[in-house]
Amino acid sequence: MGSQAFRQGVDTLLSSYRAIPSDGTVRLAKKTSNLFRKRAKNPYPGLDVSGLGQVISVDPDAKTADVAGMCTYENLVAATLPYGLVPLVVPQLKTITLGGAVTGLGIESTSFRNGLPHESVREIEILTGEGELITAAPDGEHSDLFYGFPNSYGTLGYSVRLRIELEPVKPFVELRHVRFTDLTTLQATMSRIVAEGSYDGEVVEYLDGVVFSSDESYLTLGRQTDEPGPASNYTGMGIYYRSIQHDSRVTPTRDRLTIHDYLWRWDTDWFWCSRAFGAQNPKIRRFWPKKLLRSSFYWKLIGLDQRYDIGDRLNARKGQPPGERVVQDIEVPIERLTDFVDWFLREIPIEPIWLCPLRLRDPAPAGADMSRPWPLYPLEPQRTYVNVGFWSAVPETSGRPGHANRLIEREVADLDGHKSLYSESFYPEDEFDELYGGEQLRLLKKRYDPNSRLLDLYAKAVKRQ
Fold first, then answer.
1. How many CB atoms lie within 10 A of CB 455?
2. Percent helix / strand / coil, the chain, rounded to 5
3. Are 159 and 62 in a shared domain?
4. How many domains does the chain have?
5. Of the residues 244, 265, 286, which one is the last residue of a structural domain?
6. Three-state SS at 199
7. Which of 56, 157, 193, 222 is most solvent-facing, going by the fewest CB within 10 Å?
8. Measuring CA to CA, which residue among 253, 222, 241 is closest to residue 90?
9. Which of 214, 140, 96 lies closest to 365, judged by CA?
10. What whole-number distance in Å separates Cα of residue 450 and Cα of residue 27?
11. pLDDT at res. 320
12. What b-and-e string marks burial along 200-221, b requiring 16 or more CB atoms within 10 Å of the CB?
């Protein structure tokens, strides 16, 4: 992209900001989103971020990259991988933007050793609600904004440029899929791998899991290798999550992917959600254009369903109730993982579900509050959590909108966990305030958005304004 093109993009952004009336709400003018919550239509023109979609520069010696805020991870990886480098955490879907993963959180199978995407950010250039461009870093005048920005979802401003750390990778990832017949053993094994960084004498650099039922679950363990050899491909007829399953209760099955295909292994079928569109039916998949086997296309289908209520109309024709969308990622401490999954499988009829362990990086950056370094999503340092992801719908039979989602919110809170805010939320305002750093957010809003040009977090996440 280059610095000149980037600055032109910034000029376009600032011009669009000035075009918004002084009493108008400032929001992005985006054509796409990875959010699963609807929002009210903005009567004012949005911020033009069309010039902020690429990598500005890569420094292979320093192992850093300067990246425009709207750059997708697909474009980011394409720019860094030729140097044998990638971001420390690469979220699963190609169209997630770096700015979105930082302000809205992200996670992947390196998170048990590298934390979350915002932890590998060295500095952020942010457009605040007041129209100022501020560079925030772990120390200095705007360190409060640096630490408060993650999980703020555009309520404190929008990232214009981010400088991030990169890590070296080898050409291939060798996988082992280890089967478990009970969740207690899976939990204990996951905890041990996180602590030791190895399993059965082999290093583990990537770690996630899938639960298909209470007596069939898997951990997938990955290690980098530069040894040449054949690699599997799951961008055609093969479906990655089905490759995980096997009959052996003792010997792990092994697989091998290029590092590129490993990073995007979930995107082709949006984990397992492409089955809702028939894309996993062999008769349909054979004729499905390969370029449309990706999450960005499924998003378009979701958009049509939301616009025309296609799913509920089809259910009504079958005499079935409408569906309540249960699309969430939650985190619970690892010692409560079995409690949550047992409860979930009993109460919410959705499978499979995804597991991904995470720990905040140690040590925390200079200037951080060691007890809660990231106040708007206050995970405890030196504590292991597990992200549980489930993405489907359940019959809406209670007559209470959001009933299943609210049950999940209560259970997660009882287990000392949190949930991500990219999807629908139903918290009362006082509970939300306590869980997501309400007092700290108010202090930051007072400093960086004193005229409330940006929405507050409760309005965006729960009221869906």
1. 22
2. 35, 25, 45
3. yes
4. 2
5. 265
6. strand
7. 193
8. 222
9. 140
10. 16
11. 66
12. eeeebbbbbbbbbeeebbbbbb
